[in-house]
Every structure is written in C-alpha cells, then in structure tokens.
Amino acid sequence: MVAAAFVATLLFSLLSCGTAPTTSTTAPQTTTPPVAEYTYRIVNTYPHDRGAFTEGLIYSDGFLYESTGLYGQSTLRKVELATGRALQNASLDSKYFGEGLTVWQDSLVQLTWQTHIGFVSSKDTFSVLKSFSYATEGWGLTQDGTRLIMSDGTSTIYFLDPATFQVSGKIEVKDKGTPVVNINELEYVNGKIYANIWMTDKIAVINPGTGNVESWIDLTGLLPPFSNPVAVDVLNGIAYDAAGKRLFVTGKLWPLLFEIELVPKA
C-alpha cells in the first residue's frame, strides 16, 4: 500500500510539473503606411506638338523620345526639348497603334496597343532591329536598369527580361488594398514607378516591390484652357532627367510640356 501510494504521488508530481501554463498570443497588427498626396509647381513650360497623341515619353542624352498613337498616325520621335520640334521621325505601319516607350542600352523599345507586338529600334537611326511579342495589351513601358517594366491597362504591372522579353515577375497595384486599374504610361524615378492613370489627372507613385501606391500626384488644372478646334485629350507622358533631377509631364494632343516640382498637399 505504501509503495502504491508513493507511485501515485510521484506520478501526480511529474504530470503537474509537465503542464505548461496557458497563454494567449495575438498576431502583430500590420498597418498600411499613409498615402502621401502632392500637387505641383510649374518650373518651366515648353512647346509640344499639337498633333502628337503621346503614349510613351522618355528623356535621354539631352533629348526627349516620344511614341505617339492612333492608327495611321503612330510614330517614334526624337524631340528637341526647348522647341518641341521633332528632329527625327519614323512612322509605324498603319496597322499598329504606338504605345509605351523606353530606352535600353543603345536601343529604343516601343510597344503597340492590341497587336501584341513590340519593336526594338536603333536609338541613332530608328531602324527596327527586331520585334517581340507579349500576351497582353501594350500600354506603358519603362525600365529600372535591370528589367523592363510594362503595364497593360489593368492593375497589373509586369517585369520583363530585356534579353528575352519574357515575363519574369509581376505586381498588383493597390491603393490601401483597393486595386488601381487603367495604369497607363510609366516612368521609373528614384526607385519608384510613376504611372499615369488613364482618364484622370493623377499620377500614382508605386513601390515596385509591393505594388502599393505610396503617394498620389494631382495635376488638376495643369493645362490651361485653349481655344482650338482640335480638342486636347488626357494627361499622358512622364519623363525624368536623372542627371538634372527634372520631371516632365504632358498629354495627348497637348500644346505644352511642363517641367514640374512636387509640392506636398496642405
């Protein structure tokens, strides 16, 4: 009996020691950083071809390079900033609607809208070196020094291998969790993707790692009213001079191109 009682006591002691105290844990709360808002200050104003239906715009080696759209009117251009004059001009076949544009090494890479075909052209001569295909529509195009970055009018931004033009990754663009659609012309500026949002006067500043919109640039009222029988179209066209830290914007059929400085909204 004594032995049995001893064993029972020992067992109770061991079981009690092995019982961990009950604790409750709460997952850490993650909060989305606030989205900053900016307006603008006009630094300089330059002429822009009133007939240019701007779809892609870049600044390189002291000149603007522009891709224009519309069937039968699509072009690739080298433009003098101070005058807006096209120094070089190559027309696309009438079956192509020109879209996004970027520079890659010594070449210009240009998208077309719904034909799923892009072109790589010599930056010097504008002669077409090769073409490539993609599954989606072509809207905006830029690059980050390693990858091409492409939009297709949805909330998705694609990263392409510049050697093969194959998709190497993608992000979904969201503003505080809500998808942002109609992403159009793109420009890579200081580690962020600047994106025109079609049919608005706003540019989204996007984190390329997460897809989150980190800030909005509101360009409402940038273009003053003009008396002209040819109506202007939407804001579209972002170019950045990295050496001079100058940001340029324009629109489709706009008579002006603006150098702007961002100003935090009050």
TrEMBL record:
Record-linked Pfam families: Glu_cyclase_2
Superkingdom, natural source: Bacteria
Molecular-function GO term, any one: glutaminyl-peptide cyclotransferase activity
Protein name in the entry: Glutaminyl-peptide cyclotransferase
Organism of derivation: Dehalogenimonas etheniformans
